[in-house]
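Sample entry (129 residues):
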Amino acid sequence: MTLAITPLYAGIIGLLFVLLSVLVITARGQARVSMGDGGDQLLIRRIRVQANCAEYAPLGLILLGMAELQGAPGWVVHLLGLMLLLGRVLHAVGFGRVPEIMWMRVAGMALTFAMLMLGALANIGHALF
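Predicted structure, serialized as tokens:
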């Protein structure tokens, strides 16, 4: 079996990560900081937004790919993929703004955690049964 759906979400989330990286680079240039954060609040925030994506997206994509490889229905893979993608976008926008848009940050994390839990449970369930 090959992966047909997961690459779509991996590609889009990859583009999101590049965008977040460009925002970090831009903030570094504005703050004239090449290493660390220099105490610049905008740079600190952008670094954390990017890092948060780097922390959660890979595990989500692994779980998504494993679910697809194990034969999960396409609609389930799409649902999990959309949860991860929307969660990461909402979190990045909500957390990246000053002041924060707290409902977006919370909704983004809730969607991400829900996807991770459902993906993990689906993979465990399929492996055991």
